[in-house]
Amino acid sequence: MQVVEKGAAVPGDNLLIDVSLPALVLHGEALEHNIRWMQAFASASGAQLAPHGKTSMAPALFARQLQRGAWGITLATAVQTCAAYAAGVRRVLMANQLVGAANMRLVADLLLDPSFDFHCLVDHPDQVLALGEYFAERGQHLNVMIEYGVAGGRCGCRSEAEVKALAAAIAAQPALRLTGIEGYEGVIHGEQEIAAIRAFAASLVSLAVELQGQGAFALPQPIVTASGSAWYDLIAEAFDAHAARGRFLAVLRPGSYVAHDHGIYKVAQGGVLARRADLGEGLRPAMEVWAHVQSVPEPGCAIVALGKRDVAHDAGMPQPLRRYRAGLLGDTGDDVSACEVTRIMDQHAFVKVAAGVDLRIGDIIAFGTSHPCLTFDKWRVGCIVDERFNVVETFTTQF
How far apart are CA 138 and CA 140, in angstroms? Predict the structure, then answer.
């Protein structure tokens, strides 16, 4: 008996007729718009784009991003780096520390290919010593970037003094090359978060200027990088305002933009467009998860075959967008967006049915999601569809 992957489809299939649901769906037109839009934004900002690949871990999407002009792909782990390399990616910014001999070995093996350009982060002298000794023993060099963090945040040196001391520690390791400085503003919160993010980015560039003046970098144009998917406009503006353009290779690293969402990043995009009206339309939600109504056990309640194994739920419940009847191209006209997912279990979603909506067993609902990273990782196979819901391409993930 043939084993069928969840969400498996082939080009030419139609979501309403041929595809076993639930299924992870990317709308091709919105996907292409988002990739081109963010690339254009980075280019107009005088920056390079290294999209965070951990969002999708989909080699087919990496290829699209690189073909449209991305400088490289950002990743979070050595294993993710190996998966990207196997798919043809030859420049990786690992926005994380490389810790542990087994992980170092994975990267060292990839670096036997002289065409592979790899940079990882360090934030402590102990890491610098361990990396320096390991790569020196193998007769190799490793590109490292200093991670600059904030108090109460995630990784990273907590002060400018720590950054400078770490640069000196790197200089003492012949196997290591300091190629830049990195930060992540997404851990900055509070009532004055916009001002704090701008100040953080300014401090990041100021440190880069000082280290460059001391001859600390191994590159004539060192990398200065920050930016998640919420505040990329502020980072780009701060880099430009503090003389990063031309002097440094400014690299932005948003990832969720490729699929966008109907939740936290939709809200964040609203903030970007409020600050930058010149950007026009902005990103479009490209990701949906489609599923069947499988039971209507009580008035006002429907159970949908969609659960924690299929869709993100850390940043809000999936949102009903449209309803279809199997085999019929158009939606039914009922406003299912007034319905509400109240809770989900492993493979069931409890839907509170809005007045006037007639949900029936076998109906198909397209759900919007919040936080695409934690929807992508539920799937090995997804499908890209056209405006008539015909599958034009399938893609695999490498989580």
Answer: 5
pLDDT at res. 1: 63
Other Cβ atoms within 10 Å of 329 Cβ, number: 11
pLDDT in tens, 188-226: 888 899 999 999 999 999 999 999 999 999 999 999 999
What number of helices (H) and strands (E) belong to the chain?
10, 17
> What count of other Cβ atoms lies within 10 Å of the Cβ of residue 198?
20
pLDDT reading at 130 higher than 70: yes
Mean pLDDT of 6-10: 88
Q: What is this structure's pTM?
A: 0.95
Q: Which residue has the higher pLDDT, 110 or 243?
A: 110
Which alpha helices (H) appear in the chain, and where do they start and end? 28-44, 59-67, 78-86, 101-110, 125-137, 160-171, 193-213, 232-241, 264-275, 373-376
Question: What distance in Å separates the CA atoms of residue 155 and residue 37, rounded to the nearest whole number?
Answer: 30
Task: Enumerate the CATH 2.40.37.20 domain ranges in the chain, comma separated.
Answer: 1-29+266-399
Residue where the block lists tokens 């490498």 = 398
List, in sequence order, every beta strand (DSSP E) within 243-363.
249-252, 287-298, 301-304, 319-324, 340-344, 349-352
Mean pLDDT (whole number) for 88-117: 98
Q: Where residue 358 falls among pLDDT bands split at 50, 70, 90?
A: very high
DSSP state for residue 20 in the 8-state scheme: P
As assigned by CATH, the class of the 52-254 domain is alpha beta
Does the domain at residues 1-29+266-399 carry the CATH identifier 2.40.37.20? yes
Cα 390 to Cα 383: distance, rounded to the nearest angstrom: 9
Tokens, residue 70: 């991305």
Tell which phi-psi region holds residue 7, choosing left (phi > 0), alpha (psi between -120 and 50) or beta. Answer: left
Name the segment(s) of the chain with CATH classification 3.20.20.10: 52-254
